[in-house]
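Why this split exists: single-chain examples teach little about how molecules sit against one another. For that reason, every record in the complexes split bundles all components of an assembly together and asks for one structure covering all of them. Below is a record exactly as it appears in the raw files.
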Amino acid sequence: MAEPGATQTLGSLASDLASTSLAMARRFAAGATLWCWSPEHPEHAQHVAVEFVHPVIVGKRALPAVAIATPGDGGADQLRPLVASGDVVLVGGGGAAAAGVSDVLRRAPAWGATTVWMGAGGRPPAGAADHVLWLADETELAVHDGRLVLLYHLLWELTHVCFEHPGLLGADGACEEATTCITCSDEGRLAEVLAPASDGATVRTAAGIEDIDTTMVGDVHRGDLLLVHAGTAITLVEGGP
Amino acid sequence: MKFVDEYRDPAAARVLVARIRELAGEDSFKFMEVCGGHTHTIYRHGIEHVLPQNVELVHGPGCPVCVIPMGRVDDAIAVAETPGVIFTSFGDMMRVPGGHGNLLEAKARGADVRFVYSPLDALRIAVEHPDREVVFFAVGFETTAPSTAVTLLRARDADVRNFSVFCNHVTIVPPLKAILESPDLRLDGFLGPGHVSTVVGNHPYRFVPAQYGKPLVTAGFEPLDILQAIVMLLTQIREGRCQVENQYTRIVRDEGNPRALKMLAEVFELRPHFEWRGLGFISQSALKLRPELAPWDAELRFAVPGVRVADPKACQCGEVLKGVIKPWECKVFGTACTPETPIGTCMVSSEGACAAYYNFGRLHREAAVTLGRASA
């Protein structure tokens, strides 16, 4: 049985858990794979993946989930070729690997992935990930004492609860995005440079791989993040969000 | 719309709304956003419903599709129906009504009208069809104009002579001035556009506080961006400051994009005046091609009727664009004018104020009275 304090902490995360599990259920329903990475505590990444891929409740579907094991600064390089548009990237913790974790999270929108950041300690700044599930615990003891495990068990179970309400699963905002105008919305899509060319670059965006013009931003290099409007890079995103 | 990242943390939003409530106190404030992307965010996420009643958002002429007058749409249709022409356009403009229908109807009548994602796609079509005239319908503010400029320079450098641009690019500063000089509007500040400012920077807005005494905060497109920008506007007012501030610092730099600005200057010059739907003629508010690029100017290459067409009498897009009335106060909103059968341009684009209200706001007259936002 959980400690009273632990229950109280998780109760305050109810709204975050609900929105994250619904978003994940919608992505899974559309064919997503969950990619789990926790550089400082790879056991948590493996644990999350196994819960999703091997549900212990009779009748629940197995959901595709993979844990990757790579050091803190290698996450982006390992995840880039694996993650497809529409997938979910769940990262754990940060600590000494925070820079590598942030790097993955700021690139993931260009890969078309939904991001979830889970951990304990000082809460990440707004906008660090699509969904943040964070235990307020200055000592980060929650990573080790079972509270983090309880959190992702709830995430897994609530995701399956969402599958019991199929009417919810089709209402993905992505359908709505398609109706947005390029000019009226002042569109700016995040793109990651795959290969620079003489007068442009091949980039990856949430919509796929495309060739864009980079005249307005000057020389670009593999891995640079750009903002693209109407097939043209309008600015280099420095330092990330 | 997909932007750099997500800023939708409910807890952070609640903190910002509480701060807005605290700063506003009992006084009433009216702020205008001048970017269609902001309007879309405000309605999609119900921001207007979480703000206190005495803090009102007014939706300005930030949608470049919405401000194109009907006569220019008719001009585009006339060019599109010229034999041998492949007419290319962003999807945004396809359903915008002119005096003689829209581009989709012209396509149904047999005109070769094609959607493109980028003006560079239009140039590619021209290269692939050297026996056809390919025209690109250029619309948009300073975010979009640079991609047209890049395309024109490429067409010139490669000497692609069967390509031309029907230029309708507009600029953001003159309509701001027109609004500020409008006698029937009281505003307390502006949310400055996000990606337009990526190109032009923040300096061009300095006249807003300097000459008109109104603060302006350049804002990003996520819900927390909008709320934080409102906090920044209210903070300025409460502290007795009045200046241009940048909330969207992760993307916008004060100097903008110097390369893009240089390219714009190389390709375009200001028109003496241009008609804005609902706002009338505004001096030096639109771009045309420089004389050196005349061979690529569709207005010189084709017989463009250039007839001014008055807006339908029932349509009140002008008042909506100036923020004088809310969309639901228009006589035809949601009845004769819907996204399926738009009468006014504000109902065409999903970023138009009327379409945003219709699709997301769901705030009609009766509801507004109930909420105390309008008189019965």
